[in-house]
Amino acid sequence: MNTTLIILLVVAGLLALYAIQLFNRLVARRNQISNAFAQLEVQLKRRYDLIPNLVATAKGYMAHERETLEAVIAARNNAVAGLQAAQAQPGNAQNIVQLGQADTALSNAMGRLNVTVEAYPDLKASQNMQQLSEELSSTENKVSFARQAYNDAVMTYNTLKQSFPAALFAPLFGHAADASVLTFADSAAIQQAPQVSF
Known about the structure:
By secondary structure, this protein is an all-alpha fold. It has 7 helices and no strands.
C-alpha cells in the first residue's frame, strides 16, 4: 500500500510541476504577443502621424486633387480608430481583423496618392516631400517587420496552447481562445503573382 501511495504522490507532484511550467510558458507567450502588438502599435502610430504632414505638403501643389487627399485622411483616421480599438483589447480577434482592413484601405489610399504625386514634378522635387516620402517608406518597412513579429508571437502562443497535453490544461488556466494573427483584406491578391506583359 505504501508503494502505491508513494507512486501516486510522485505522479501528482510531476503533474503539478508540469502544470506550473505550462502556466508560466502560456503567460510568457501571451506577454510576447502583447509586447509584439505594442511594437506594431508604435510603428503604426508613427505612420499615421507622418501621413497628415505628407498630405499638408502635397495640398499646396495639388489643389484640384482634393478628393485623393481627403480619401487619404479619411483612411488614416479609420486606421487610427482601428488601432485604438485593437489597443484597448489586443486579444479581441474582431478588433485585429478591423485593424487589418483599415490599414489595407490606408495602404490603397496612399498608393493612389503616390500615383497622383508622380504627375507633379515640382512636388516630387520638393525637399520636404522627399524627406517625408523617405520617412514614410522607412516606416512602412518597420511596420512590416512589426507585423511579422506580432504574427510570429501569435503562432508560437497558439502552437503551445494547441499542443498535447497543453491543450488539456490551457483552458483551465484561462487560455481558451486562440490569439488572432493580423491579416489584410487583400491577402488573396498578394498571394497571386503579378501579371507582366510587354
